[in-house]
Amino acid sequence: MPIEEDIFAKIREFKTIIIHRHQRPDPDAYGSQCGLAAVLRANFPEKEVFQVGENVHGLSWMAEPEKIADDLYKEALVIVTDTANQPRVDDQRYTKGKCLIKIDHHPNEDPYGDLCWVNTQASSCSEMIVDLVNAISQIKLTDEAARLLYAGIVGDTGRFMYDATTPHTLRVAAQLTEYNFDAAHINRFLDSIALPVARLAAYVYENMQLSDQGVAHIVLNNDLMKKFELKDASTAPVVPLMGKVIGVKCWTIFVQQKDGSYRLRIRSKGPVINELAKEYGGGGHPLASGAFMKDDTLIPDYLKKLDAIAAAYTGEKND
């Protein structure tokens, strides 16, 4: 039996379904989680369907999570979307359900759950939710689900610019735009930035460092973030910027946290960087990963390793 049918069988079996996603969510985390919830509510009005996790103000235009009591988990089906490993699941009560399903598109290095559906070829987990619906004739999309899933796909593909975008991704996006929501508005909204972020973007372009091997980086410490009146979550819009510069193969933004440690946002146009991310307590996709450092003394050694990776890359030149 295909995995999609196994998942649907579990969905039919349970009256209570609780959907989780990862910490520090992005549009795909919200889109896949809340898009799936919207599908299930519309197709199974007799079921109780909840979406849980931290409420992120910047994504409240998509949907808002719900606060639920612990006892709802006792007889529940729990589905975790867009979350590669268990420590990253937002709201650790996800283990308290009767059955657990993982749906994800990251490398499957932590295959948790009673059912585990991972498709690393998918552009996003939101794309996978559409595939799930399309595979099951008994359920249909709705306008609201299509809006959420489209936003998730657009967010994770960088408006269809990233390498993970495939012909199938574009077909799925086209299918979603047939529903009644304003796709152009979502595109514009995801491309817009607040004035403090615009000023940070100017700082990034003015102060980024670029090595001879095509490795770019910038360090955003707490004093700088305070100056721009921004927090870590607000740096997401500037992550793609250095990749727009001709000659950049891969790049890293180091964002200092309150405790003095650093969060690394690592991106690449070709060199595989997720193995390096693992060395620093992180991981992710081959061309888009994250990692952590206890302090800035580790940055020079990290950049040397990234330089070596870029130098060894024999793919398309970024000129």
TrEMBL record:
Cross-referenced PANTHER family, in alphabetical order? Answer: BIFUNCTIONAL OLIGORIBONUCLEASE AND PAP PHOSPHATASE NRNA
Coiled coil residues, start to end: none
Protein's name according to its UniProt entry: Phosphoesterase, DHH family protein
Q: Could you read off the lineage of the organism from its UniProt record?
A: Bacteria, Bacillati, Bacillota, Bacilli, Lactobacillales
Gene3D superfamilies given in the database record: 3.10.310.30, inorganic pyrophosphatase (n-terminal core)
* Residue ranges of domain DDH in the record: 17-153
Recorded GO MF terms: nucleic acid binding
Residues annotated as domain DHHA1: 236-310
Per the UniProt record, one Pfam family is DHHA1
